[in-house]
Amino acid sequence: MKKALVIILLAVLALPVLLPFLWTLSTSLKPLTEVNRYPPEWFSENMSLNPYGDMFFYLPFATYALNSLIVASAATILTLLVGSLAAFAFARFHFSGKQIFLLVFLLSQMLPGASVIIPLFQFLRDTGLYDTHIGLILVHTAVLLPFVIWLMYGFFLGIPGEVEDAALIDGCSRLGALRRVILPLALPGIGATALFAFLGSWSEFFFALILTSSDATRTIPVGIGLFVGEYQDVWNQMSAAAVLFSLPPLALFIIMRRTFVTGLSAGAIK
Amino acid sequence: MMNLHSLALCALVALSCTPKSDVVEIHDWNFGGMPKMIEFLRERVESFERTHPGVRVVQSQKSWNMIREILYADFSAGAGPDVINVHANYAAEFGGAGHYYPLNKFPDFEEVRSWYVPHFIESTMYKGNTYGLPCSAIAFVLVCNKELFDREGVVPPRTWSEFREVARRLTKDTDGDGVVDQYGLVLLGGDRGGFAYRLAPFMLKAGANILSDDMTKVEFNSPRAVAAVKLFADMYQVDHSITPGFLAYTLSEINDLFSSNKVAMSIEGPWFRALVKDKSPGKDLYAVPVPVPDDRIDQYDTAPTLQDMVMYSINAHSKHVNEAWELVKHLRNVESDMAWLSTDMGAIATTMGALNSPEAKNVRDLPMYINELKHARPWPSHPKIIAIANNVIAPYGQKAISGELSPQEAMDRAAEEAREIIEGKQ
Amino acid sequence: MRKSTPYLLLGPALLFTAFVLGYPLLQNLINSFRDVSLLRADSEWIGLRNYTQVFGDDLFWLTFRNTAVYAVVGTVFALLIGLGLAILLNMKIGRISNVAAALYTIPWVISPVVAGFAWKWLLNDNFGIVNYWLSSAGITRGGISWLGNPQTALLCVIVARVWQFYPFAMIMFLAGLQAIPREQYEAASVDGATAFRRFFHITLPNLRAITSVLLVLGVIWSFNDFNMVFVMTRGGPINASMVLPVLVREYSFVHFDLGRGSALSIIVFTLLLVLSVVYLRAASRREPT
Q1: Which pLDDT value is given to residue A263?
Q2: Do C148 and B244 count as a contact with CB atoms less than 8 A apart?
Q3: What is A69-269's CATH superfamily?
Q4: Do β-strands B307-314 and B83-87 pair in parallel, antiparallel, or remain unpaired?
Q5: How many percent of chain A have pLDDT more than 70?
Q6: Residue A260 pLDDT
Q7: Is residue C19 very low, low, confident or very high in pLDDT (cuts 50, 70, 90)?
Q8: Chains that touch B (3 or more CB pairs under 8 A)
Q9: Cβ contact (<8 Å) for B5 and A32?
């Protein structure tokens, strides 16, 4: 009985939660002439997948999608590489200045984008990295780094030292132990971290907005965000873009849900 | 581990390499534009590429309401496109700062200049140099929803009193549920640049100036100009005939409202008819001059409205100015211009060849626009005028209309800030 | 093992942080004392004038107030909702809780830009479904312009923020709930405690550390939240929903006054630094020594 009640409650609460997304989905299937109807309708007569195709004509969304994919993938790989090394150092070594360095990374996580954007803009401009893929990738990597280090630090701490010691006794070098023993154990943690990093870069808007400007480097969030409220709003195409944009993170999340939750719990409980 | 590392490194290096080619590539940024216009421009660019092998044009669409920020950010980075279409009043700011190429330097300029209505191409000049070829002439007018007007049995207003009265009558509850769902007037509040362009025509029709003729004094807080602001303030706060949500409205929302008969009037330019046609084919509207104050009714046909001009300019830092010039001429010759007449793209032709052609007589509202353009005045060509319009006149105008400040107070404070900007204190 | 190994491992990360975050922060500090403009190449030292201009600007105080309200109210409600849902999901109802958990996380997974866009469309005063339902239910008369009215704009942005952030809190709370040792509950039942007392005397105290971490993190992240507000309102109407990150962009890229933008961002950073110290205290309290 209590179980049924809880289920019903969950189902009811799910509606307002999903409403914005479902309404966007509904809008993305309508032709432009049926988008502005009052009273609003969930289903109009001529719904189709046309907006999903049309949107590639109005704005170069294929390019935007490719850019988002390139930047997010590269940034994820890079930040995992760099961050894992640093996290391993924190988790397994004692060295002077450790606390200070930890603090530095922790604090840089709190850094508002607003505090660095202007000099960063000037820096990228002066080094020729403004409006390039690399410029944005490097910035995303650095921005994601503190969070990645924090997460991976937690995971490495969660792996008992005995496992490693056993490998060392068997003759492995420290780094060899890292590669052969620890990494496999940390895989779920790496998976969760990779997901976070990818999501973070995929949906990043602020830096992408200011540090790129041409269509050749523009990412999807900027494409969507800038054209909201433009000269001619094509709400249905914009909705289609928003839906498509949400699919990769959603897919990734569904696939990796369990790793995701264990990842977060490890971080929370440490 | 090491392999991953080097793989990542290679990927990064690969991304940074771009192929070199012998083809000259010029970048054309198009600001704003409806789908039909964008398509037309693409075709036009293609025909250019066919007749100019060795030149490739990369077109991008950009957001009209962020035009200034984008341009400055890119110009300061030494980047930016080769060709752009912008407001003519950027000639003062960007041309004066050396960002636009003075077209009068090209050997065939005099001939090209003769294509255009003299007073149009004058508006792209600053301190003796011409910074753009006129693309589309704009005069701000009053558009009236034909269906709502006919239904109520009213005609488009000519004076401010009539304007207020008509707006009042057309604000009503149409379905009897006790809630007003139709409004007399809508204002473009969600776009700061656009908002100032809706206030200025009324100020100009009242005979007020924005700046003094020598551009040293601020005059938009004169009694006549403040009266224009007060007109809107009264309509909003007393008559409630202006849509309540106007502060967030963008052009597309105004289009939605107009097309669905929720609003009867708006202050717009030649684009509006095409915009509405795209959204609601068959929807008709009246386009008439902006109303004048009651005591100026005798000057109805000659009082100035706000003029704006879109022009094609060339980036002074471009590495391919000659090719850019060829492209600009191709996009702006009489042949291109004629397209404005044959399809409703919401642009008014600027070449004499097009305007004097037999087809011109058949275009709706063209005679009215041409008359308005004869007397219209653009924003003063001060380099800081855009900053003043967008960041001072617009916000204070909004405060006055919404009731946060009185019209006089708002305009006085705005004038104060504008003065500081002109004198370089900000 | 060489003594330099840890430093080598840390090296790349430090390099990145130094170049992309450290150096700009420093440059920002310098810029804030200069008259730097996006329009000119030169700049001159003007001491504290940028700061006095910012503190003397009414818009700054309005923005600060807006941001504080946005951060605190948004975070508190997100936490409340997250906790409530986590409790529901933690009850023994079988596999369906996994499905539900996934569904409830959607707002967070779909990114703030999409969230902002979706809410903007939902709240459209003439065609949005929210207005339609409200007026059909008789709660309001006619279409309210949620995003066009200075009185309601901030509220709407906060609602969108709560919607977007609660899943993060929910998942953290869920993990926290699942980590509470069974024995504590069993002991309490043996002692005859009601569900009510169990909640207040076992559940909540166990979640205290997570709650404080979530609160501080939520507030800090809210202060940095540019995306959603920018997409929904750009800070309008008439600055009713202007928040600090959007104001920095406005000073820098709309008014082209980089000096003032830098001063403002240093002010924000200092504020967050203080909050971060609070966070560190809260975090260290739960860390096993």
Answers
A1: 58
A2: yes
A3: MetI-like (1.10.3720.10)
A4: antiparallel
A5: 89
A6: 61
A7: confident
A8: A, C
A9: no
The closest CB to that of A21, out of C12, C118, C245, belongs to C118
What's the pTM value of the predicted model, to 2 decimals?
Answer: 0.80
- How many contacts does A have with C, using Cβ atoms within 8 A? 279
Contacts of A146 in chain C (CB under 8 A): 17
Q: Are residues B297 and B407 in the same domain?
A: yes
Is position B260 within any domain?
Answer: yes
The residue among B30, B89, B35, B91 whose CA lies nearest residue B63 is: B30
User: DSSP states of C106-171 as a string?
Assistant: HHHHT-HHHHHHHHHHHT-TTT-HHHHHHHHTTSSSS---TTTSHHHHHHHHHHHHHHHHHHHHHH
Query: What ipTM does the predicted assembly reach?
Result: 0.77
User: Is residue A134's pLDDT more than 50?
Assistant: yes
Q: Check whether residue B74 and residue B127 sit in a common domain.
A: yes
Residues B161 and B260 in one domain: yes
Indicate the number of domains in chain B: 2
Residues B62 and B187 in one domain: no
Longest dimension (CA), chain C: 76
Q: How close does chain A come to B310, measured CA to CA in Å?
A: 15
**pLDDT per residue as tens digits for the range B381-397:** 888 888 899 889 999 99
CB contact under 8 A, A233 and B253: yes
Residue-wise pLDDT tens digits, B250-260: 887 888 889 88
Nearest residue of C to residue B65 by CA position? Answer: C254
- Do B342 and B397 lie in one domain? The reply is no
Among C122, C132, C143, which Cα is nearest to B179's? Answer: C143
The CATH number of the structural domain formed by C50-110+165-286 is 1.10.3720.10
Q: What is the pLDDT of residues A27-71, one digit of tens each?
A: 889 887 777 777 778 888 888 888 888 877 767 888 888 999 999
State the residue range of the domain holding B199: 141-305+384-422
B279 in a domain, yes or no? yes
C163–A contact, CB cutoff 8 A: yes
For helices C204-223 and C58-90, the axis angle rounded to 10 degrees is: 150
Instruction: Give tens-digit pLDDT for C213-233.
Output: 788 888 988 988 888 888 888
Residues B243 and B162 reside in one and the same domain: yes
Q: How do the domains of chain C map onto residue ranges?
A: 50-110+165-286
**CA geometry: angle at C132 spanning C126 and C133, to 5°?**
155
Model confidence at B362: pLDDT above 80: no
Is B51 a domain residue?
A: yes
A-interface mutation test, from C265, C268, C272, most A Cβ less than 10 A away: C265
Cβ pair A246:C111 closer than 8 A: yes
Burial (CB count within 10 angstroms: exposed 0-12, middle 13-18, buried 19+), residue A225 = buried
* CATH code (residue B235): 3.40.190.10
pLDDT band at C288 (very low <50, low <70, confident <90, very high): very low
CB nearest A112 (choices: C109, C132, C272):
C272
Identify the residue whose tokens are 């052009």.
B251
Is there a single domain that holds both residue B148 and residue B200?
A: yes
Contact of A28 with A12, CB cutoff 8 Å: no
- B167 phi and psi, to 5 degrees? -60, -40
Residue B152 lies in a domain: yes
Is-contact B15 A133, C-beta < 8 A? yes
Kindly report the nearest CA distance between residue A19 and chain B, in angstroms: 22
Average pLDDT score, chain A:
80
Residue in chain C lying closest to A264 (CA) = C172
- Give chain C positions within 8 Å (CB) of A149: 13
A127 contacts chain B (CB < 8 A): no
**Interval B313-336 mean pLDDT:** 91
Q: What is the rounded CA–CA span in Å between residue B336 and residue B355?
A: 12
**Are residues B415 and B286 part of one domain?**
yes
Number of other CB atoms surrounding residue C245 within 10 Å: 28
The residues spanned by each domain of chain A are: 69-269
Better-scored residue on pLDDT, B393 or A11 = B393
Q: Which residues of C touch A23 (CB under 8 A)?
A: 118, 121-122, 129
Query: Searching chain A, which residue's CA lies closest to the CA of residue C166?
Result: A17
